[in-house]
Amino acid sequence: MKSTNLLRIRDLIHQESRIPFYKQVDLYSIEEDLLIGVSGTMGYGFKLHGRDLLLESEESIENFEHRARKFWNSLPTGTTLHIIVKSEEGAEGILKDFDSSIEDQGNLARKVVDAKLKAYREHPFIRREVFLFVVINPSWKRNHQATLPNLSFALGGKARRLSESDFNAQKGDIQKIAVQIEAEFRDLGFRLEKLQKPELLAYLYELLNPHYSKEIMPFEKSRIVESGPIYQGETLRSRLLLSPPVVEDRFFYLDQYFHEVLNLRLLPDQTSLKVMRDFERALGCNYFISITIEVPDQERERAALKKQGNFAKAEGFFTRTKDYEAWARAGESDQLLTEIAQSEDKLLYFSLAVMFREKTKRELDGRVDEALRIFPRLGDAQAICDHMNHDRLFLSFLPLQGHENPLTFLVRSEVLTHLVPLQASWRGTEKMGLLLKTWRDEPLKLDLFDAALQAKHAVMLGTTGSGKSFFTTHLLLHFLIASKTHEVIVIDVGGSYRKLAGILNGSYLEVECSEAYALNPFPRKGILFSENGDADATFLQFLKELLQKMIGPDRKWSASEKMILERAIREVYGPLAKDRAPLLGDVENALYHFEAGDEEDKRKAYQFAKELCLFTKGEYGRLLNREGVFDFDSRFTVFDLRKVSHYPELQEILLFIIPFALKRKFENIALKKILVLDECWRLLKESQGTDLVEVFYRTARKMNAGVLSISQNPEDFLESKIASVIINNSPIKYILRLHKSHEALGRFGLNPNEIQAIRELEVRPGHYSEVFIKFDEQHVLVKLEPTALEYWIATTDPQDQEMELFSKDKPLDLESLEKLAHEFPHGVKKGRDGSRA
Prior knowledge:
By secondary structure, the chain is an alpha+beta fold. A hairpin with a 2-residue loop joins strand 8 (251-254) and strand 9 (257-266). The longest helix has 24 residues, at 164-187.
C-alpha cells in the first residue's frame, strides 16, 4: 500500500511540466552582505568555529547542553537556521601560507619544507567548514508540514515580490535576529565570523560549478565580485549557474559531477555528542551536510498535534533514550501537552541530508552505499536515497533553500544539541608557526610564541617509543627554519641532539674527557675584540670569572687579582689573528711568565697558574685545553650533561658556562629563544641545578624566550623541588603515549576527558604518532606524520643508528640522510620487514 502511494505521488510529479532548473534557484542578489532570494527570502551567513566539546570536563559539557537547550528555546518564531557542512580534501591555500612563512631559504630549510609540502599534497588535509545561515521568509510563504513534501515548490510555484516597505521591514527583522544569534552563540563559547560578499559568492560559485571552479576558473580569478549584471534585470542565479544540470531519477548531474543526496528517513532513537562526531568522521573526506531548523508557531503546532491525535509521539518523538512509556500513553493529549509546556521545550522542524558528488556514477554509488551503512551509527537512524528528489535536495544545499528538503521531523529543542555539528578541532593560532595535522586530518597552525600566551613555557611527557624524539625534533627544526631570528638551547642528558646539531651546524658541548671531543671556552679573537681593539666587556668578565672558578672557587678575589687575570687574557689574544682562539694552557703559560705587575703580582700569577694545571693537564686537559672552540653565538646550542656526575670538578664550571651562554642570547629581545631541558632530573636534584632552572623560568619570561621541559613520566616533574614552578608556569602541555601514571596528569591541570583521550593515543612506528596538546585553554589531538627526511633526522632506533654508522665514512650530513630516507623511508626495520613480505 505504501509503495503504491509513493508511485502515485511520483507519477503526479512527473506529469507536471518541469520549470527550468535555474528558475528554481532562489538567488537574486547580495546587498551589504545580505543574501536575497527571488522569492523575497533573506539570509545572513556566518562561518561557525566549533569546539572540541568531548575534551572538556563533564561539568562544562553539562553546562553547555543546558545553555544550548535554552538557546534553541529562545529562537524567534519564523526563524530558520540552515547549517551547511562542507568537507573536502585539499588546502592549497594554507600550504602556500606555510611556504611563504619560512624565512630561512638555506639548503636544509628548503629540503625540509619541500619534503613537507610534498607529503601534505600526497596525503592532503581535510578542509572542513561549517556555515550557519540565519534565514527568514516573507510572510506569504507557508511553513512546511512535518514529513510531508511541499509539492508546490517541486512543481515550480511562482515567487512573489515584496513591496519596498515589506522589504525594509523584513531586512530590519533579520538584522536584529542575526545580531541576537551571533551574541548567543558567543555566549555558548562559539565564534561566528560573518560572511562577506566574496565569501558568500565563493561558496555558491563552487557549489554550482564544481568542475569549472576547480579546473577552469577558480573563484579568485573569476572576477565575479567585481563584475556587475551583464544586462538589466540579471539575477545572481543567472550569473553563477554556468552549466545546465541533467536531472534523472537516480542522480543529479551538474558540471561534470554526479550528485546524490541521502535523506534522513527515521530519526535516531538516542544520540550523544560523541555519536554525532563519530558519524561525521565515518563519512570520509568529501561530503556536504545540510541541516535545517525551523521555528513554527508553537500554539498552532500544538493544536495540530492535538487534532491529529499524535500526542504521545510529541514526547516520544525523539529523546536521548527510548521512551516506551510515552508511546503507551497515546491518546492522553491533554496530559502530554501539559508535560511539553512544563518542560519549556519548543517544537521545531528538523531535517538532515548528506550529499556526495563524484566524477563517475560508479564512484558515487560506492560512496552512497557505504553512507547508507553508516547512518545507523547515528543512534540507529535510517536514511534513504531519495531518487525522486535529487534536484530538489541539491537545492536544499543553497543557503536560502534548506526548506526544499521534503522530509522534516517535529522534534523537541532538548535534543538538537546532539544533532547539530557544533564540534570541531581547534584550528590553532592566528599566525602560522608550525603546520601540524589534527587527528581529523585538518590543518593546525601552532605559533609557539603566540601573543595570547602570558608565558611561552611548555612541558612534554612521553614514554620510550611514543614518538617523543620525533615530535621534539619536529618542533625545534621547524621553529629554527621558520626564521633566522629564532634560536634554541638544549640541556640534555641523553645524547639525543648530536645529529641535529651536526646537520644544523650548531654547537655541541659534551662532558667527556677523551680525545674524541674538545671544549675550548675561549672565543675567537674577532668575537672578543672589535675592529678598534675594544673588548666585549660582558664576554671579558665571563672569562675572568671562569678562571676564578677554576683557580679558587671559594677565594675572595681582590680587584688587583682580577686585573692579573684580565692582563693575562689580553696578552694571549694580542698576537692572534681574528679567526684564532687561545687555549687555556696559553693563559696558564702567561701567568707563569707574568711580567705586567710588581713582585707580588708575579707571585700571585705564578700561584694561579699552578692551580690551573688541574684543568690543563690530565683528563680535564683533554677536554678543556685543546682546539675546539665552542660557538656561543650558534643558533642551535646543545649542552650534553650525560657524564657530568663523573667529573664533579667540572660540574660547577659547566653550570657557570651555561648561564653565560643563555645570558648572551637572552639579552637580545629581538630574538625568540627556546630553552630545552630534556630529562634533566639529576640536575634538578642538586640545589645548584634547581636554582639554575628557576633562573631560566624567571629570565625567559622577560626576554622573549620559552622553556620546554621534557620527561618520560609525570613523576619526574612532580617529585622535583620546583614542580609547581614548572607546571604552573607552563601553559603548553605536549602529552604523548604513556604506559603508566595517567592518574597523575590531573595535577597538570587536565580533566578526566582529556586524560582518557591521552590513554587512547596511538603510535604506528615509522609512520605516525598521536599527540595531545593543551595550549592554554585550548586542546587538540594531532597526528605527527614525519616525512622520510624528518624521520632520519630524528630517529634514535638502534637499527637505524647502525645503518647510519655503516653507510658513512665521514660525519653524517644532509646528503647521507637523504640517501637513507630514499632507501628506508619508514626506517630500517620497516624497510626490511616490507622487503621480506
